[in-house]
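Example (one chain per record):
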Amino acid sequence: VGMFNVHGRDRGAIPILEQALLPLTATDAGRTRVFAWYNVLMDAGYAFGGLLAALPTLFESALGMDTLEAMRLTLALFCALYGAAAILYARLPAAIPRAESVGLRHLSPASRPIVTKISMLFFLDAFGGGFIGSALFAYYFSEQFAVPAAHVAVLFAAGRMLSAGSHLAAAWLARRIGLVNTMVYTHIPSSVLLFTIVASDSFGVAAFLFLLREALNEMDVPTRQSYVMAVV
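Predicted structure:
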């Protein structure tokens, strides 16, 4: 239930719990790398899901279904995949050794304002990001350039694979310039690229800029997760 959300990925309650538990599986030096691989696996699944968005088109051409039937079958598969995820989550242990509950009041006076300020920053980032979900991008490409759904699915899958690789690049970069610098120096260009996508007059240029943005947009994710856990 914690994974149900409008984005279909890392914007629910479950990832917050996972991010609190993952540092127990690594040393401080390896924490960012663990978060990087965690996000690589999520984005790989998201890329696969992007390809599945081409299923209605496939069902229509291969099985002769009408559009509504193809959509219904795809939605049924979506529900089955969520059910499979629920089974996997049910196999997790009820408790993690060495895990301790730490509330805001348990943090040191020096750490509390850091956590408060960065939480507000993440709130603004998530609030703004909620306006540019995948559905809006798909609608834009379809309406602006008359691109078939299958082509958009392949584009989204490619973008997610670039995003997955960027997590590992972020861990490498953070070891050299620091966690905060990695967050800032990659996220600002990705936000600027968002404006260039909608200003493009051809699908090829817009797709290239979209992929470039996807390669940068998620590099702040493992670094900010690692930073917050380091403060806590």
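Caption: Residues 27 and 34 are 10 Å apart (CA to CA).
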